[in-house]
Amino acid sequence: MAESGPQPPPKSEMIALIRELYPICRSITGNGVRETLAILGREMPLQISEVPSGTQVLDWVVPKEWNIRDAWIKNAAGERVVDFRASNLHVVNYSTPIHGRFGLEGLRPRLHSLPQQPDAIPYRTAYYEETWGFCLSQRQLDALPHGEYEVCIDSTLAPGSLTYGELLIPGESPEEILISAHVCHPSLANDNLSGVVSALLLARELARQPRGRHSVRFLFAPGTIGAITWLSRNRATAGQIKHGLTLTCLGDGHPFTFKRTFLGKHDVDRVAAQVLGASGYAHQLIDFFPYGYDERQFNSPGFRLPIASLMRGRHGQFPEYHTSLDNLNFIDEERLGESYQVLREIVDGLQKNARYVNLEPYGEPQLGKRGLYRAVGGTGLPGLQFAMLWVLNMSDGQHSLLDIAERSGLSFREIQLAASLLHEHRLLREEPEPHALANP
């Protein structure tokens, strides 16, 4: 919002990183997640955690680790008619190893397609059921003649560990903003490499800035079980999280969707409404419901962490979702850049939503003699003069800048910049956040 905030990375850099990550076969455990986190770790030093299989995590247990080297279905001529090397979506994620011969009719129950999308390969998983299968387009399935096929899935499912990465950007307070992006999906560009890369590059930009009011924690973990594992291991300190977002599906051309926290009235809900309202981008604000991504784990009754979700296309509501159509051609550099801008403005707003006290509270202070009218003229914000009057009038130590923006109908950016100018000219004193955690 303010000009001192982080500057977005080049959109081409975001796309280049997504292209590098796209071919990796990820799952909720295994070497694909480790390879992904290693690439992210080139940009920022992630703290990597390995949690052994069999570990009790809340009501769940960390599963066996899955890895895959190759898989295929070969016809009688030895040709690969379904080939893992062509698309890692061709194998049901977490498939147990198999090598044998099957007739087409015996094989059919193991073959998954989308009849309504004949050119798309579906993404299917079998995380907690020891089984196997293949995914292929309906056209591929229809083209298979009757006969015998050689089937091989060269995978392992054995005791290992679940891997996640995190990074903390320290702030003036240990109270935290959590940014979470799931890293378990193989070769799906929008869901969720768009979220992963947006989070990573925001972390890099914030690390280059002066410390903000809040610390910012970035979590890169497998969906559901990863968030549950992290919560289980951080149960005692999770209360330090005061705001947060899960990120997904940020690279497509759909309008923005902001899914509110459970209560729907936390600062992150209000700041996001301000940012999206002022952005000019088509958007919708929807209430929390207990389905979707890891916001449902963070908002569960025992934690009730104020974590919302930022996305464009909603899960399950666009035809490319969880199919091979969610590829590198589906995401768009411009849309990804817009999403990054919205994300960083929400975080910037959370960092700068301060409370002030007017140091000249008896009547209206003379702004002209302090050069504030000239300062207003250089901003290109026509509402800034009015914003200063609102800030001065409501700065009684009880109202935040977000309160003032909502009451005045002006943008948070105008209110925050007005407060910054007034503070610079010694007309305001910043108040400590009520009930804030003390610095360690």
Characterise the protein shown here.
With 440 residues, the chain is of the alpha/beta class. The protein is 31% helix and 24% strand. The strands form 5 sheets. Strands 1-10-12-11-13-16-14-15 form an 8-stranded mixed sheet, with helices on both faces. It has a 4-stranded antiparallel sheet with strand order 5-4-9-6. Strands 18-17-19 form a 3-stranded antiparallel sheet. Helix 7 (267-279) links the parallel strand 14 (256-259) and strand 15.
Please state the CA-atom Rg, rounded to the nearest Å.
25 Å
Q: Number of DSSP strands?
A: 19
Portion of residues in beta strands equals 15-25%
Helix fraction? 25-40%
Distance between the termini: 29 Å
Helix count? Answer: 13
Biggest pleated sheet: 8 strands, mixed
Categorize the overall geometry: elongated
Strand order of the largest sheet: 1-10-12-11-13-16-14-15
The average pLDDT value, as a whole number, equals 93
- Uncertain segments: 1-6, 436-440
Structural class: alpha/beta
Summarize this structure as a short list of keywords or feature phrases.
440 residues; alpha/beta; 4-stranded antiparallel beta sheet; 13 helices
